Amino acid sequence: MPTQPLSPAQQIRRAGNLVNLSTPLGLLVAAAGRARRRPGPNGLTLAEGYRLRFPPAGAFTVGNVVICPRDFATLTARQPEVMDHEEVHAWQYFCCGGLPFLPLYLLASAWSWLRTGDVASGNVFERAAGLRRGGYIEAPASNAGLRAVARWAQTLTVKPSRLAERSR
Ligand SMILES: [Zn+2]
Question: What is the value of pTM for the model shown?
Fold first, then answer.
């Protein structure tokens, strides 16, 4: 991949995500998953062949490091806009001041699950990065997760006998 000179914004993002420790964390995660690193487009680092099972994603970004269990050629053949999607996540780390992005992302995922039954469709960060570009199929806001929680709560509080039956 030919590396073009970085725009001032990309240089600021690269420096910012280094200083706010999100890129160092990304390099650590890539190393933990024994991924091979190489320079990517727009000041990003690509890490391929990630071997850990978590998170279960075709690609994910930590700071300026885009990590992928397989290789990017295969991934971009299937999802041509995936790097644009992941680059938005690199900006989101920058805008959140680095590591605070992670708990915020978890909260957004939980909210999405409650609203739609999946962790991406209602997640503000994934929506901003583009669901389709990230390979997600948008689920409607059906409150599927909320209803599941309500069912569990009902089982626990209103029908304790049913729970007792189940555990027998
Ligand atoms: Zn994403």
Answer: 0.88
